[in-house]
Amino acid sequence: MCLCGGFLINSAPGFAQQMETANRLTAAGNYTAACYEFERQAWLSTDNTTLANALMGKAGSLIMEGNYSEAYRTTGRFRYETLSDTTVIRCRHTAALAAYLASDYNSAIAEIQQLLFLVNDTSKTSSSLFILALSYNENREWLKADSVLQVMVRRSAVPKNMKDSLEEVLSQSYAPQRFPKLKNPDTAQKWSTFIPGAGHIYAGYVGEGLLNFSLTAASLGFIGYEIYVAYYITAFTIGSGIFQHFYFGGINRAAFLADKRNYRNLRDYNDPRRVQVLQMQELLYGEVR
Amino acid sequence: MAQDYRPGDDSVQLNSIEISFLNYLVENANYKEVLFGTSKLLNTPDLLTADQMDSVCFLRGWSFYQLQKSDSAVGYLRKVRRNSPLGEKSKYYAVFNSIYIREFDSADSLLIDKSPGFENLDLLDKGGIYLLKKNLAAFDSIAGSFDFNDYTMAAEQHNLIQLADTLRKYPKKSGVLAGVMSAVVPGSGKVYTGKTAQGIAVFLETAALGLAATEYYVKKGPQSAGFIVFGSLFTFFYIGNIWGSALSVHVNRTEFYERIDNNIMVDLHVPLRRIFD
Lengths: 289, 277
Fold this sequence. Notes:
Chain A is mainly α. In chain A, 75% of the residues lie in helices and 0% in strands. In chain A, helix 1 runs parallel beside helix 3 (48-65) and helix 3 (48-65) packs antiparallel against helix 4.
């Protein structure tokens, strides 16, 4: 299962041979040569369908090469006028996939939403919905992702008992109580402002929080001791300097740790969801393309 | 070796089509593919006419330039013959790329060969080179010939003169003086070099350590652990600050020159786009 496969393009008879050459180059991993040949087909094209096929081939090559942002830029050259529904679907699908892989989730969502708006036949668009679900996941819009996945299941041709079990899996995976608990960096900072180390603990880093609390307390202890032994200058200069470093440094660190925790929680939740979505796509609509 | 057009030669026709395709690739900013295509054509140079060779070298040089590989761009742009329709554009972009990679001799050698109608651009490029070399006297001799009547570069001519004035007015600060100042009053050398906030911070840090060391020295004597710790830290910060202050004169000057040099490059670049694009 791979998001990078399935870009070998069928084309109009007049271009079949050249497209075949370009497809072979892509399959052989000779992406620059393949892109060159696909561009040649785009240049020679006399209609928007041939242009779209050539550009889809190039975008596919770039995706296989791992150059996702360039792939998405290439899909921006599609001319949608006069294209058939089938070609529009493939173009928008390729564009959405390139945008998703380039981590441009808003563009991926926009491409699929335009596809759904332009093509009324839901049987033709359902196999592209998984990109929408994946993008919603990354945008932390899990309820929307769940809705899209439910639609994918309902529209598929699998037996009813399988649909029921998939819906059950989804209801468990996307239960709101399972969504990542995201920490607010501002709250973490506020906690550490009032109790040194508390923001770290709020962010889930208990050990680091206790260490910060101890070091801040120790620096206060140092100030107290220096005052007790009448070393007032040292207490005022060095003691307060050390205290400020631990106190204010701890506040900033708490916000950083909250962001770090959010990232980890997000990945811990989204990575299994990604695998789940791709498995569902494979089960419901065949190979992931 | 490039050769003249021979009627009936199929390869000439095929290469002509390929070059049209390469131009299309450039229009769509597919520079990586242009490099691929031109390298294929350059593998068989005997099949290219002289004009085709010019086009291929120009397209390859142009793509390198767009991909910000100036050293490669210069090599190919220089290969375009001067009497080619692309000759002047290639020459001046080769000059610009040579200047960008600071190969001033290469740029000068291109400018020696005069191009009728491009005298103002020659002057602008020469002026830019002198400014980049920080040779203000030579720049002044060139700037005296700026006529400010050519709309494609009048603003840039004014800009270069302003940049020269900025360079002239840049205070010559001494690293030694900055170091001595920081030795007398920690942080003052940094203030002298223009980094006031850093100077204040350094002063507070060093003073705090110095005061703490003094307090331990007075109350517990030179053998006390407090004096040794704070005294060592004070010495470390004190000497480090003297060295840092002296160095920051050089760092400031480098940063200032980098800013000026970037502005000069912009002023040399913009007229090219106006004239040739």
